[in-house]
């Protein structure tokens, strides 16, 4: 293993100069800095993480709290996590992944142990019980999600309220008046998870503005659960011609069941989804959709957090504007005979 002393000898400088180049604690001339950095690259030197942490009083680690529940769509969460990890690495930070459903206990463990310099929280609920602890500590944090009260917090999220309104506006413009929403699993709403609740607010608000009939039904996802949910929808609202789906695991079962019932998409029924582009484009009918910008959300959260760690940023709420892409699953509402 290459030592700091060997780097210094190779660059023709003192060991303390190499240390200052690495830590940035003192101003070093551009020529000397370049020589040291070239020696570091040529020799393949990697500073000892423990020594670096002791010297800087930092761990250079960001904790990412991502409870992996059975009722969430794990690929989206993992896409966000990968974006967090890769962006953090470009800023010189590693990521500690916490996947348990520990709630406040995990926050206390991180803030009380020095495990990490900062935290990013996912799966944010409207009245998340972790938030009082975040507001009560000096450790920087960021949320990928939006609680009911974001004051004193840094939050990055898709504007799900606007996404819901956008989906409904698209169907209304095509003449659909009876619209059903196939939502997440019931437990997601029981926890008052922010993204699901805010989407529903946007849908209901737009329905009132446009005078539409809206029916919301949570669904566990999967073929059997979707069959029960769809039968219930058409029993309660037989004139339904538009669907908004916010449940990735329900997308393909819904399309299959509509085909079995002889309902053509989009001639008889139109479907809009809030989902990753990959889900929309690989469905049996290419779905008109609002994409979930997972990578952008992860990247933005890290960049805001690093700015806070460097003393360059304060608390703010960043809501990414939704974009609707029209594909093959939506068309004009069928005319009644």
Please write out the topology:
Blueprint lengths: L3 H8 L3 H9 L6 H14 L5 H8 L4 E5 L8 H17 L3 E5 L5 H10 L4 E4 L9 H5 L5 E4 L10 E4 L1 H14 L4 E6 L2 H5 L3 H17 L2 E6 L4 H14 L5 E4 L2 H13 L9 E6 L1 H6 L5 E4 L2 H16 L7 E4 L3 E2 L12
Parallel strand pairs: 1-2, 1-3, 3-4, 4-5, 5-11, 6-7, 6-8, 8-9, 9-10
Antiparallel strand pairs: 10-12
Helix pairs in contact: 1-2, 1-3, 5-14, 8-10, 11-12
Brief synopsis:
The protein is α/β, with parallel strands linked by helices and 337 residues long. It has three domains: 4-56, 434 Repressor (Amino-terminal Domain) (Orthogonal Bundle), CATH 1.10.260.40; 61-158 and 294-320, Response regulator (Rossmann fold), CATH 3.40.50.2300; 160-291, Response regulator (Rossmann fold, 3-Layer(aba) Sandwich).
Ranges with pLDDT <50 over ≥5 residues?
none
Helix content, binned percent: 40-55%
Order of helices and strands: HHHHEHEHEHEEHEHHEHEHEHEHEE
CATH class of the largest domain: Alpha Beta
Overall shape: it is: elongated
Strand order of the largest sheet: 2-1-3-4-5-11
What's the architecture of the largest domain in CATH terms? 3-Layer(aba) Sandwich
Q: How many helix segments?
A: 14
Here the CATH topology of the largest domain equals Rossmann fold
Relative strand content: 15-25%
Structural class call reads alpha/beta
Overview of this protein structure:
The chain is an alpha/beta fold and 337 residues long. Helices cover 46% and strands 16% of the residues. Helix 7 links the parallel strand 3 and strand 4. Helix 1 crosses helix 2. The radius of gyration is 25 Å and the shape is elongated. The termini are far apart. The mean pLDDT is 91.
